[in-house]
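Weekly sync, protein design subgroup
Attendees: M.S., D.O., the rotation student, P.L. (late)

Item 1: inverse folding check
M.S. brought a backbone from last month's batch and wanted to see whether the design step gives back something sensible before we order anything. D.O. pointed out we never logged the input encoding, so this time it goes straight into the notes. Structure tokens as presented (137 positions):
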């Protein structure tokens, strides 16, 4: 009987061990003897690193460029009290990102007159859009 799958190379390879390319397991080039890769030296941090409740050890390398700060950092600390499979964990992290944007805008507005005017214009535009939309309802 001539079936269409008979023309496909490798079809049903898991049925007959003689046709499986990985049996017997053979490595080319072979593994090097006597090589041992030890655990890397852990990274030292001088800022707070938030860690999931599922992981008991920190990874050897992690980012420290944006440590948690302000209200967004407070929200992130609360989010990491929940498990990663809990929806609250991810929603709180998303909300903390949005709060961080507002905090950064406020911080920029305090430092620079140009940024301050841009924030004021953007805020006025949003307020005007909100008022116009409310008036149309």
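Designed sequence read out in the meeting:
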């Amino acid at each position: 009987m001539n079936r269409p799958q008979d023309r496909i190379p490798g079809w049903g390879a898991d049925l007959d061990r003689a046709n499986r390319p990985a049996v017997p397991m053979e490595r080319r080039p072979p593994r090097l003897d006597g090589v041992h890769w030890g655990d890397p030296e852990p990274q030292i941090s001088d800022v707070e690193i938030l860690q999931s409740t599922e992981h008991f050890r920190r990874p050897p390398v992690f980012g420290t460029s944006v440590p948690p700060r302000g209200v967004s950092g407070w929200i992130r600390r609360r989010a990491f009290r929940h498990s990663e499979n809990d929806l609250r964990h991810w929603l709180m992290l998303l909300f903390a990102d949005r709060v961080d944007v507002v905090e950064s805008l406020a911080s920029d507005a305090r430092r620079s007159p140009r940024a301050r005017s841009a924030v004021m214009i953007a805020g006025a535009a949003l307020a005007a859009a909100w008022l116009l939309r409310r008036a149309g309802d």
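Discussion: The first helix runs from residue 70 to 79. Residues 68-137 form one domain.
Action: P.L. to compare against the previous round before Friday.
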